[in-house]
Design a protein that fits this description.
Number of helices: 1
CATH topology: Lipocalin
CATH superfamily: Quinohemoprotein amine dehydrogenase alpha subunit, domain 2
Number of strands: 10
Distance between the termini: 69 Å
Number of domains: 1
Radius of gyration: 22 Å
Shape: extended
Order of helices and strands: HEEEEEEEEEE
Structural class: alpha+beta
Length: 138
């Protein structure tokens, strides 16, 4: 074998032997159970116009699907969305639609994140704001 062939052989052999180890060490996010976010939440928002507001959101969860009820300072209605691992996305069914995107945080129990905080952004007609949500009563 010449030196170039030997180097290529060593490179591909390394890929063949090491790549499967990485696949074993990491579980794909879609294979992990969704975080638990069901319940009543207070969303403390920094609105796009520079003001702050509190929005109350009740989340009902069935696996990766979420629905529930939204109540803000100026409108209320239903919500629909999904949870993928710890990432939640939902839209309000209101006159002015709001889209919330966030990460559910909290302790793990039996391999599932038990949400005690959601941090993220929301998009309104007037722009994008940020929020931090905690279970109602906290």
């Amino acid at each position: 074998m010449n030196s170039i062939t030997r180097r290529l052989f060593t490179f591909y052999l390394g890929l063949f032997l090491i790549a499967p180890l990485g696949a074993i060490a990491q579980q794909a996010p879609s294979d992990q159970p969704p975080a638990q976010a069901a319940g009543k939440w207070n969303f403390y928002c920094h609105d796009p116009n520079g003001t702050t507001s509190t929005k109350e959101i009740e989340i009902q969860q069935n696996g990766t699907q979420v629905k529930g009820h939204f109540k803000g300072p100026n409108q209320s209605g239903g919500i629909e969305g999904t949870i993928n691992n710890q990432h939640i996305v939902f839209k309000t069914k209101t006159r002015d639609i709001l889209t919330f995107r966030g990460r559910i945080e909290g302790p793990r129990a039996a391999g599932v994140v038990q949400g005690n905080k959601i941090i993220g952004t929301f998009h309104a007609r007037r722009g994008t704001g940020t929020f931090e949500a905690v279970p109602a009563g906290n």
